[in-house]
Amino acid sequence: MSIDKEAITLTLSISAGIVSAATFVVALAQMKIASAKTRLELYNKRFNIYTCALDYFQAAWGKSDNPAETHQREFIRCYRESQFLFKDRDGVYETLTNIKDAGAQAIGLEKMIHELESSLTGDPRMAASCREKRMEHLGSFERSLMTLEKQLSKYIRFERASGWHPVK
Fold it and tell me: What is the spatial distance between Cα 79 and Cα 102, in angstroms, rounded to a whole number?
């Protein structure tokens, strides 16, 4: 009878070891999945900031179905969020600050131009000056957007994602 107890004890010990190993493998897989999910969520948040900047740019040019103020509000939300998603040394927040300022100036000048043109007493020279300044701000906006694309490239390129192998 003691042999049977020893065999049962050995069998139970081996079974416990197998269950422990299986539990370890499942926990490791769940950890990898959680890590990948976190990276994907960060990617989505960072890419959303880029798309907000693009939408804001189109709105500043008057190429959007929604009012520029709607895109401006959405961009401000993304702008504020960006300070938590990027390293300070990369300069993303500073570039987004330049975009915010240039966009606000361009949108404000567009309103002023519209008011000057619709007013009977509006000064055409003032409207022309505002148009020129607006174009300068839109140019600054575009340059900052190009800078942003370079700064974000290391954050939103798929080549850096684990398990991703680009087709060559």
Answer: 13
